[in-house]
Amino acid sequence: MLYFYFVVSFMSSIMLPYEMYFYASGGIEDRWKPADVAINRTIVIIGFALGGFVAAALVMNGAQLYQPHHIDPQLPGTATFGPLQTFGATGLRLALIGMFFAFAGAGIETAFSAAYGTAQFFGWPWGKYRKPAGAPRFTLGWVAMFVASGIIMLAGVDPVALVEYAIVFSVVILPFSYFSVLRTASDRRHMGPFANGPIARVLGWFYLALITVAGLAAIPLLIATHGGKG
After folding, report:
1. How far apart are CA 46 and CA 40, in angstroms?
2. Cβ(93)–Cβ(82) below 8 Å
3. Count of Cβ atoms closer than 10 Å to residue 64 Cβ
4. Buried b (16+ CB within 10 A) or exposed e, 140-172
5. Backbone dihedral region of 158: left (phi > 0), alpha (psi from -120 to 50 degrees) or beta?
6. Does residue 230 have a pLDDT over 70?
7. Integer Cα distance of 168 and 159 in angstroms
8. Contact indicator for 138, 124 with CB cutoff of 8 Å
9. pLDDT score, position 28
C-alpha cells in the first residue's frame, strides 16, 4: 500500500494541473506562433526527461543516505545532506542555491497560475506584462497568493505534509484537466497540421487511463497509509 501511495504521488507531481494553466497562459502572453511548436516540444521532452532523472536520483540518494541510518527526512533541507556528504561545504552551498531557485520558481509559477485561472474565469484583464493599473485584480491575485502562503507558513503548518496532501488531491482532478487538453490536441479543427498523430494519441489515451486509475486510488491510499506514514 505504501509503495503504491508514493507511486501515485510521484505521478501527480510530474504533471500538476496548475502547470498546464501556467504554460498555456504564458504561450498566449508570448504570442507563440506555429514556428514555436518545434522548440516547445524539444523543451518539454528534455525538461521532463531531466526532471524524471533528477527525481529518480533523489529517491536513490535518499534510500542510500537515510535508510541505513534510519533517518526519516521531514524537512526539505535534508536534501542537502547528500551534496554535503560528498562535496563538503561547496556541495552544501550549491545545494542551497539550487533549492532557492527551485522554491522561488515553484512559488512564482503557482502564484501566477492562480491569478491566471481566476482572471480568465471572471474575464478580468490579465498578464504579467501589464502594469498593475492595467490589470489590478490580476496583480492583486498573485500578490495575495504570496501573502496567503506566508501566513500559512508562519502559522506553523508542516510544508512537506501540505505539499503531499496538495499532490494527492491534485491527482484526483488531473484526469479532468488532462482529458480536455488531450481532446483539443487531437482535434484537427483546432490544431490543424499540429494535431496529435496516431502514436501520440495512443500514448495520450494510455496515460489518461493511467492517471484515472491513480486518481481513483489516491484518496483510499492516503487514508490507508495515513498520509504515507505506513
Report:
1. 10
2. no
3. 10
4. bbbeebeeebeeeeeeeeeeeeeebeebbebbb
5. beta
6. no
7. 14
8. yes
9. 86
**pLDDT tens digit sequence for 30-76:** 888 888 888 888 888 888 888 888 878 877 877 888 878 777 777 77
Distance CA 39, CA 42 (A): 5
Residue closest to 167 by CA, chosen among 3, 5, 1, 4: 5
| The predicted structure's pLDDT at residue 15 | 73
| pLDDT tens-digit map of 101-157 | 988 888 888 888 889 989 999 999 998 888 888 899 999 999 999 899 889 888 888
pLDDT tens-digit map of 212-227: 988 888 888 888 887 6
Tell me which residue of 78, 75, 82, 77 sits closest to 57, measured CA to CA: 82
Sign of CA dihedral 27, 28, 32, 38: positive
The three-point CA angle 135-139-142 to 5° equals 145
- Cβ count within 10 A of residue 137: 14
Q: Residue 160 is placed in which grid cell? A: 512537506
DSSP state of 98: H
Question: Which residue reads 541505513 in cell numbers?
Answer: 68
Residue 144 CB-half CA count within 13 A: 11
